[in-house]
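Ticket #328: bound-state structure for adenosine-5'-diphosphate.
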Amino acid sequence: MQPEMKPGASLLELQSVSKTYAAVPAVQDVSLTLHSGETLALLGPSGCGKSTLLRLIAGLERPDAGRVCMAGQDVTLSPPERRNLSMVFQDYALFPHLNMGDNVAYGPRMRGVNRQAARATALKALARVGLAGLEGRRIHELSGGQQQRVALARALAPGPSLLLLDEPLSNLDEQLRTSLRRDLSRLFAETRAGVLLVTHDQREALSLAGRVALMRAGKVVQTGETGEVFRRPVSAWAAAFLGERNLFVQPGGVLMVPERAIVLGKGEAWTVLERVPSEDGMRVRLAHPLGPLSVTLSPREAALLTGPGLQAEINMAECLTLPDDRDV
Ligand code: ADP
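RESOLUTION: The complex was predicted; output attached.
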């Protein structure tokens, strides 16, 4: 029996959750909420506590302090199977002795669904992840990408209200990652479940999540709508982690010059220090008085760059001054 959802309650609410291993404070005083249909990325560098937080939510670990609530009920001490959630592990954790179909039917079977209905559910879940007709395949016959899809289908089959994913694309090569990212994005949009995914990859968060919780050393340092977090990082550390290249130490803080603040073809011509072809055109570094200024040129702009210099102006209204917390 799943607990009833209280009206107006969020799907998931963490209240000041902490967890320490030996002397390592892996998660410190984290509070977060997630609503149905929302996709939240826990984003941060390796070792910052993302997986620990995910395991605390799943019920695979117990916090030392704080509460985990789902649908308004305190589940802090409830085992994983009482939480109406599914988890996709980084290494997929499929059952090697079962075929694809049986792997996916396992969850519904454990919940008491009869064999025939569980099989029907499994076939539907496999179709949703693009694996229709392959249910008889053995796990060892599958590619990494297919295994990840089976793991997803297995997580979706019981119809959980919360889907947890630990670095869902990290074990795949670049090409597979791109196609699976697209599929995940579609699946997340289709599902009514809340989705919480752990990633250290900014692009993954940007392409998959509506909201981001940025973590550093066990703490959530910023939460917000994904675009907003990337546009307005709270500090120099956050900006650098999110991929901002133009950060200049000044009196009173760090000046962040985002790409959108750099106006080409206006102002003075700055010497081009370096040209590096990139996937979206060409990245150049200019000898700007602020410091080396990194600018990405479209293929058309790059084609026009023939001389030793490039005209560029900074629109200060688009820049931010941030506290410098990079060595904290
Ligand atoms: P992330 O997922 O962001 O890489 P983790 O949650 O795995 O981070 O780890 C956070 C910190 O907790 C790290 O310092 C890690 O070494 C430590 N840690 C995680 N799990 C354990 C454990 N079972 N025992 C001891 N230390 C752990």
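RESOLUTION NOTES: Residues 174-190 form the longest helix (17 residues).
TICKET STATUS: resolved
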